[in-house]
């Protein structure tokens, strides 16, 4: 097949084996209502769009094994962001610029023509490619002129070059134009987003770096280190705030997502402040957002595994998509994130509603148990106070995962202690957390914790913390709450599955 041959037909696309599907289905760590692929490997969300009432989620996918290799584009759709229908694979590697993988990209509507812009990988080279789709977004044809950008800028020594954010805008002369940024890094300097412009999505003019980071801004171990390359760049405006989102990467190692707030104008982004996007670090990675038909900014991220590769291979699957998050802007310009309210439809049995009491201090007496739960706590946190919420806990305490909310010298801190989350010594149990912006030390703090087997997502006043945990015991279902005052209110629901 030549470089200009059409892509394989849908009937040629590979599928997970029945045996791998069975292994994935019986794994106790597999979530019940977070989106997961049928089996195999899944990573970055791609091509997010709502079209004709349907939400479409494309994603990086290897249907043959839970390893990052020969990446395809998986595809699912939903009416409600909760219940997803798996659709045929959208893109598969073929001879030419994507022979070794169809990597991350985006969806755009090109005058009514559904279009994907993605990174094709051939060997160590990753270049922009285009595919056009049917009205229902099920069938896709790659452009025979791919790649549509022949090489990275020749005047830069780039560390890597991939992942696309594409949009249209009107220039000062009233002319519509396409723009895109490509994730990259300048060797010896730092990560960057490279800006391009086009009239037709096929011929691109390089305009220069939109913004360049500083790899020396912090130690590599810092949660605010900006990396040597920026992956999965995403530029959007919400409530008057411009945000440039990226994931810090360094020589094959994924670190964490960050975002700059500031002002995009002309050919540059003027930053005001750097923020952490999620206090869970790499457990919410490679995020992508969309503006849905109601005008909301909806964000998904990839929740990486925290267990060894061999364990994922044995389980038959790897990778979880985060819950859809609605993003808004705070008064200070930073981003506020919350689970999309559609998720609430999964709340079934009310397990608790009231002020936490002594009965909640021990697993044996707590009325809250389960591995699919939704918890909401509204509580004051005075200086010096420490509140602990344990989930996935055994009665003897041999396994327990503990959220800690405390105020020290006026500052509000939220952390996750995973040191006892699993008796398996090979799982990642490093602590996670950080500071929560707090306008008033007397204001009530809103905490929401969503438990879905191995996938945990918490939100404290709109600041998220995603994590993965892997209890080994079937009785690791308990929940306890300690340290709250009489003014606190706790609500807890059992969550239904979404499949």
Describe, in plain words, how this protein is organized in 3D:
- The protein has 499 residues and is mainly beta.
- The protein has helices spanning 18-25, 309-315, and strands spanning 40-51, 54-62, 72-78, 85-91, 102-110, 113-122, 125-133, 140-142, 158-170, 176-186, 190-198, 204-212, 229-238, 241-250, 253-265, 268-276, 285-291, 297-303, 317-318, 320-321, 325-329, 335-339, 347-354, 372-379, 386-393, 401-408, 411-417, 432-436, 445-452, 455-460, 463-468, 478-482, 489-495.
- The longest helix has 8 residues, at 18-25.
- The chain is globular, with a radius of gyration of 23 Å.
- It starts with 17 loop residues before the first helix and ends with a strand.
Label this structure with key terms.
single chain; about 500 residues; mainly beta; 6-stranded antiparallel β-sheet; 5-stranded mixed β-sheet; 33 strands; about 50% strand; globular; disordered N terminus
Helix and strand topology:
Blueprint: H1 18-25, E1 40-51, E2 54-62, E3 72-78, E4 85-91, E5 102-110, E6 113-122, E7 125-133, E8 140-142, E9 158-170, E10 176-186, E11 190-198, E12 204-212, E13 229-238, E14 241-250, E15 253-265, E16 268-276, E17 285-291, E18 297-303, H2 309-315, E19 317-318, E20 320-321, E21 325-329, E22 335-339, E23 347-354, E24 372-379, E25 386-393, E26 401-408, E27 411-417, E28 432-436, E29 445-452, E30 455-460, E31 463-468, E32 478-482, E33 489-495
Parallel strand pairs: 1-19
Antiparallel strand pairs: 1-2, 2-3, 3-4, 5-6, 6-7, 7-8, 9-10, 10-11, 11-12, 13-14, 14-15, 15-16, 17-18, 18-20, 18-21, 21-22, 23-33, 24-29, 24-33, 25-26, 25-32, 26-27, 27-28, 29-30, 30-31
């Amino acid at each position: 097949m030549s470089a200009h041959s059409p892509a394989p037909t849908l009937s040629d696309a590979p599928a997970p084996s029945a045996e791998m599907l069975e292994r994935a289905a019986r794994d106790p760590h597999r979530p019940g209502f977070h989106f997961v692929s049928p089996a195999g490997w899944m990573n970055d969300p791609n091509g997010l769009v709502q079209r004709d009432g349907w939400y479409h989620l494309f994603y990086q996918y290897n249907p043959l094994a839970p390893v990052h290799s020969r990446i395809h584009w998986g595809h699912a759709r939903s009416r409600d962001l909760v219940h997803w229908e798996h659709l045929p694979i959208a893109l598969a590697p073929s001879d030419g610029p994507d022979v070794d993988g169809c990597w991350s990209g985006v969806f755009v509507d090109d005058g009514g023509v559904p279009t994907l812009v993605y990174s094709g990988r051939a060997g160590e080279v990753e270049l922009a490619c285009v595919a056009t789709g049917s009205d229902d977004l099920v069938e896709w044809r790659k452009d025979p002129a791919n790649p549509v950008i022949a090489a990275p800028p020749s005047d830069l020594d780039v560390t890597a070059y991939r992942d696309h954010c594409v949009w249209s805008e009107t220039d000062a002369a009233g002319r519509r134009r396409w723009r895109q940024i490509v994730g990259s890094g300048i060797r010896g300097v730092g990560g960057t987003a490279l800006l391009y412009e086009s009239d037709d999505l096929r011929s691109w003019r390089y305009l220069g770096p939109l913004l360049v980071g500083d790899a020396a801004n912090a130690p590599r171990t810092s949660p605010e280190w900006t990396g040597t390359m920026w992956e999965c760049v995403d530029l959007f405006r919400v409530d008057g705030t411009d945000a440039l989102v990226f994931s810090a990467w360094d020589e094959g190692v994924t670190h964490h997502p960050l975002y700059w707030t500031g002002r995009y104008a002309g050919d540059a982004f003027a930053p005001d402040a750097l923020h952490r996007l999620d206090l869970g670090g790499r457990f919410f990675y490679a995020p992508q957002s969309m503006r849905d038909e109601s005008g909301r900014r909806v964000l998904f991220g990839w929740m990486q595994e925290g267990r060894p590769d061999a364990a994922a291979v044995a389980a038959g699957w790897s990778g979880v998509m985060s819950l859809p998050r609605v993003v808004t802007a705070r008064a200070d310009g930073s981003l506020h994130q919350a689970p999309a309210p559609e998720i609430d439809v999964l709340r079934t049995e009310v397990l608790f509603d009231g002020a936490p009491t002594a009965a909640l201090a021990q697993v044996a007496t707590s009325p809250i148990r389960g591995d699919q739960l939704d918890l909401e706590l509204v509580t004051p946190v005075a200086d010096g106070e420490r509140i602990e919420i344990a989930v996935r806990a055994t009665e003897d305490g041999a396994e327990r995962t503990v959220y800690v909310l405390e105020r020290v010298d006026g500052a509000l801190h939220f952390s996750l202690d995973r040191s006892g989350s699993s008796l398996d010594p090979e799982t990642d149990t490093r602590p996670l957390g950080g500071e929560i912006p707090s306008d008033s030390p007397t204001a009530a703090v809103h905490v929401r914790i969503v438990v879905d087997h191995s996938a945990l997502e918490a939100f404290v006043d709109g600041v998220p913390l995603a994590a993965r945990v892997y209890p080994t015991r079937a009785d690791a279902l308990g929940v306890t709450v300690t340290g709250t005052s009489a003014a606190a209110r706790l609500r807890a629901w059992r969550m239904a599955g979404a499949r």
